[in-house]
Amino acid sequence: MTAKIEPVVGRYLHLDYAGRHYRIYFETAGPEGAERRIPLVCLHTAGADGRQYRGLMNAASVTERFQVIAFDMPWHGKSSPPEGWQDEEYRLTADFYSGIVMAFIAALGLERPVVMGCSIGGRVVLHLGLRHPDAFRALIGLESSAHVDPYYDTSWLHRADVHGGEVAAGAVSGLVAPQAPPANRWETLWHYMQSGPGVFKGDLYFYGIDGDVRSELGRIDTKRCPLYLLTGEYDYSCTPEDTLAVARAVPGAKVTIMKELGHFPMSENPALFLSYLGPVLAEIDARG
Amino acid sequence: MGGAAADADLGGIGTQLARLAERVDQDTALLRRGRILNASCLLIIGDASVLLRIVDGRIHDIRHGSLVTPSADFAISGDAAVWRRFLAASPPPGDHDLLAFVKRRELQVTGDLHPLMSHLLYWKGLFAHLRAEPTR
After folding, report:
1. Quick one: pLDDT at residue B11?
2. DSSP string, A65-110
3. What is the DSSP letter of A286?
4. Contacts of A156 in chain B (CB under 8 A)
5. Does the beta carbon of A162 lie under 8 angstroms from any beta carbon of chain B?
């Protein structure tokens, strides 16, 4: 038998936000307290959870300079929905998403963290840059677009006669690059298979409707808050062209199109993703 | 209908179609995924059509050629050139998944989509078997 414990710690945060109580699960890797490094808060994709970042959390090349922190958004992963959820339809809004990220950062006392988000997380970093330009050391948008046109009827994601986990995995399976190692590909899809009823659909309300930030991109000030954009070439949800359009609209944004990666770079192929993320983190680290 | 001309009419997938039932039969994971699927799907490839009938996840019947008023649960239609790109052995980024073509409106999906959406991973696996070298 061989056994190994990962250097990842999971805890629960109790947080009152916007009149409701939330029990939020988060994981950290890297030194805390006096030894604490630059906080790197990681935001998962729609219908998934913080497990997507386990590759980063186990990468010494990252944790020697950064404290990696990933939390499950309410309704996702091990963060329960708030009391009364059974009587409402979950729909993620730009105000709630931006607000809960800031509340989490404040609750943990993180000082000018780097925030990195993927997909809906890559969208919300644009909102964060607009709303709180002095709160972050840098923002990193993975698979970041200002808007996405619908390409299937999202009502299929939440109906009693279709298994929500199966259809969610089927809907996103093609967003994983063909080159992804099979174990990583299927673990990424497993996260989608485990999402609660209607949660993926509710997140896509932000991705497709409420989070449209096209008209405001020009106000993002990268002198106050550097913005890095990294997108996989196989992502047809947030396409490379979508990300390049964001970069063109935000003066000073730095963009990288990643070969042989898709919509879930951190979980579908962590080693390859780190080869792209490493120089970005080094630049942020060097700036201090 | 047969030979190279027919294959060209079918977007170049005539050979793969002939072996599809065998490939599906050998794919135990796919059969498990589709074990309660009973459906018919019409592939409209330019001017040609292919009617697939699935029973309990297996290929029960494939018809192509001069189909008169074919009836199916749902249809996927597009130009032959689009199908050729979709079913290429190693498609480039953006040509590697059904929904990518749907997003660009290059393939249209119509009809009762319940059999498709309830078994989306199954159908994607089946289409992978229509590629010369499945990349699933």
Report:
1. 65
2. TEEEEEEPPTTSTTSPPPTTGGGS-----HHHHHHHHHHHHHHTT-
3. H
4. 113, 117
5. yes
What tokens does A88 get? 């409402």
Q: What is the mean pLDDT of residues A29-38?
A: 78
DSSP reduced 3-state for B60:
strand
ipTM of the complex in this document = 0.94
* Residue from A152, A154, A190, A258 whose CB has the most chain B CBs within 10 Å, to mutate: A152
Homologous superfamily, domain B3-129: SCP2 sterol-binding domain (3.30.1050.10)
- Name residue B54's beta-bridge partners: B39, B59
Dist. CA B87–CA B97, nearest whole Å: 9
Give the range of the structural domain holding residue A279, as residue numbers without chain letter.
Answer: 9-287
pTM score, whole prediction: 0.95
- On chain A, the residues whose CB falls within 8 A of the CB of B96 are 174, 178, 234
Task: Please report, for the domain that includes residue A258, its CATH number.
Answer: 3.40.50.1820
Parallel, antiparallel or unpaired: strands A20-29 and B74-78: unpaired
Query: Is A1 among the domain residues?
Result: no
